[in-house]
Amino acid sequence: MNFEKFLKISSGALAGVLLLGINSAHAFTACQVTDVGGVDDKSFNQTAWKGVQDAVAKHGVDSKLLESKSETDYEPHLNSMVNAGCDVIIAVGFLMGEATKNAAEANKGSNFTIIDFAYDPTVPNILGQVFATDQAAFLAGYLSAGVSKTGIVGTFGGINIPPVTGFMDGFAWGVKHYNKVKGKNVQVLGWDPDAKEGLFTNNFDSTDDGKAFAQNLYDEGADIVMPVAGPVGLGSASLADELGSDKLKIIGVDGDWTQTDPARKGVYLTSVLKKMDVTVLSVIESVKSGSYSGGITVGTLENGGVGIAPYHDLASEVSSELASEVEALRKGIISGSIVMNK
User: Fold this and answer.
1) In this structure, how many other beta carbons lie within 10 angstroms of the beta carbon of residue 16?
2) Of the candidates 206, 202, 130, which has an alpha carbon nearest to the alpha carbon of residue 166?
3) Measured on CA atoms in the order 56, 282, 35, 265, is the torsion positive or negative?
4) Thinking of the domain 133-274+306-335, which architecture would CATH place it in?
5) DSSP reduced 3-state for 54
6) Which residue in 239, 238, 236, 156 sits closest to 201, CA to CA?
7) pLDDT number for residue 44
8) Which of 1-5, 16-20, 306-310 has the lowest mean pLDDT?
9) Which of the listed CATH numbers 3.40.50.2300, 3.40.50.720, 3.40.50.1000, 3.30.70.980 matches domain 3-132+276-299?
10) Which residue of 3, 150, 278, 286 pairs with 292 in a disulfide if CB–CB is 3.0 to 4.6 A?
11) How confident is the model at residue 43 (pLDDT cuts 50, 70, 90)?
12) Are 33 and 68 in contact (CB under 8 A)?
């Protein structure tokens, strides 16, 4: 399915924008408010901002950005974007859910979209973008189990919230499926998908924590680690770079980390992709064309909203047989013949 169809939103009249003194001929402006990780987080804030910049390049729209330093910045920043006359306001991250709802309900003429949050009931002027990252992470877990030489892999998160644990669930389920198919016993450290308990740094910004958590997992035998903590994971990549990819490999998340962190591209086995840049661009286009409406949209393997990155420098570590098995799993998840958590 074409990814553009994934963001097929029911047609409807464009909600009036609060112009607040701005001439009706003002330039279309797409505005983003980041989570505390900042726009250069090499992860979800940066990937979402790429979608805005793609809209700038493709359609000549204007853009505005506000970076949050703490959770108390969320609502004031969102309201500031309303006051600036933004045509669409992009909130990045689950933790912005309440602030975005408050701002949207107080400004019903403004168009909002939020990444990693789905409202129930939905809010008419917020489009929630959520992603089935467990599907893509399942592929990465199976892959990791097949590549691991120690028979131990690990993961940790930033905060115990669904957009983080979805990656960790899928990763653990993928390893479990590998064990079932191959009669192996590859262990997963750092997350129990049944008990919903595991390792969390409780932040999305400390690369020192990323290095320390990866070190602990490595010390326990893990030779592949998937950090789900935004820029914290760069600390894990730093450790892998010091040790060498023969000792420790990293699974990136959100974007392709060989592209966002090219200096250490040799440590990344793959990345679990959440294609927020494409969804953000599509939302901006829907507002610009007048077809925007609130609700929920979901990125999946089937519609291309999630996936895994190429193996790049570590392709030689992945046998042709294993690569074929991963592709077969992708097709099986799409068809429904593979049930991930069984």
Assistant:
1) 10
2) 130
3) negative
4) 3-Layer(aba) Sandwich (3.40)
5) helix
6) 156
7) 86
8) 16-20
9) 3.40.50.2300
10) 286
11) confident
12) yes
Torsion of CA 203, 206, 210, 215, to 10 degrees: -120
Domain boundary assignment for the chain? 3-132+276-299, 133-274+306-335
Record the tokens describing residue 235, joined without a space.
Answer: 């600390």
| 133-274+306-335 and 3-132+276-299 share a CATH fold | yes
pLDDT tens for 101-142 read: 999 999 999 999 999 999 999 999 999 999 999 999 999 999
| Distance (Å, whole) CA 37 – CA 27 | 29
Strand partners, 224: 153, 249
Report the distance separating Cα 159 and Cα 174, nearest Å.
Answer: 22
Q: In 181-208, which positions are buried (b, 16+ CB within 10 angstroms) versus exposed (e)?
A: eeeeebbbbbbebeeeebbbbebbbbbe
CA–CA dist 144, 247 (Å, integer) = 13
**32 neighbors 93 (Cβ within 8 angstroms):** no
